[in-house]
TrEMBL record:
It comes from the Bacteria. Belongs to the barstar family. Residues 34-130 form the Barstar (barnase inhibitor) domain. Gene3D superfamilies: Barstar-like (3.30.370.10). Coiled coil: none annotated. This is Barstar family protein. It comes from Hydrogenophaga aromaticivorans. The lineage of its organism: Bacteria, Pseudomonadati, Pseudomonadota, Betaproteobacteria, Burkholderiales.
């Protein structure tokens, strides 16, 4: 049987381009890793991004909805809950506009890079795949053409329920208590 993601470093944050969400979910299941999925297509601001991640990753209700709290939830809180097998994380359609500018996007990805480093120190795989939202032309306008630019697969929003994609959330206390 082929080992999924064998050519992907065990602790990395990278573009989702080469992978489909369902393939990543299947890889997580086969590897026995947690699968966390967040579709951020409706986010307009940093607060929207954090609220969507909190809801779709089922972060605890005391989550502070800031980048430091996100890092704490992805690392310390999960680490204290018991042994971990690994993580495959998807951040799909990260906003790319003035209210969530390049600096905010880099800060968000830095949180996941730092999280990957944290889990790497503990010899636990943490792979994060992301995509950016693509600006769309208004109806009646022609799309902007960019030379030598390959089309992005993110121009189609997937209608995938986060509940259907999430296997077991490491933030689900009931899951961990039952497993103990």
């Amino acid at each position: 049987m082929d080992t999924p993601l064998r050519n992907v470093k065990p602790n990395i944050v990278q573009s989702i381009r080469a992978y489909g969400v369902k393939d990543l979910q299947a890889a997580a299941e086969q590897l026995g890793h947690h699968f966390l999925y967040a579709n951020l297509a409706k986010a307009q601001s940093k607060q929207d991004v954090l609220e969507l991640i909190a809801a779709q990753y089922t972060l605890p209700s005391h989550f502070g909805k800031n980048f430091d709290a996100l890092y704490d939830c992805m690392t310390d809180l999960v680490h204290k809950s018991g042994p971990q097998t690994g993580f495959i994380v998807v951040l799909e359609h990260i906003p790319a506009h003035a209210k969530f500018d390049k600096e905010a996007r880099e800060q968000l990805l830095d949180i996941f890079r730092d999280t990957a480093d944290y889990w790497s120190d503990r010899k636990i795989p943490f792979r994060c795949f992301y995509s950016f939202s693509v600006a769309r032309a208004s109806k009646g306008e022609a799309p902007i053409e960019v030379e030598n630019e390959e089309p992005m697969p993110t121009d189609k929003l997937l209608d995938v329920s986060p509940m259907a994609l999430r296997m077991s959330s490491p933030f689900n206390a009931g899951y961990w208590l039952a497993a103990a």
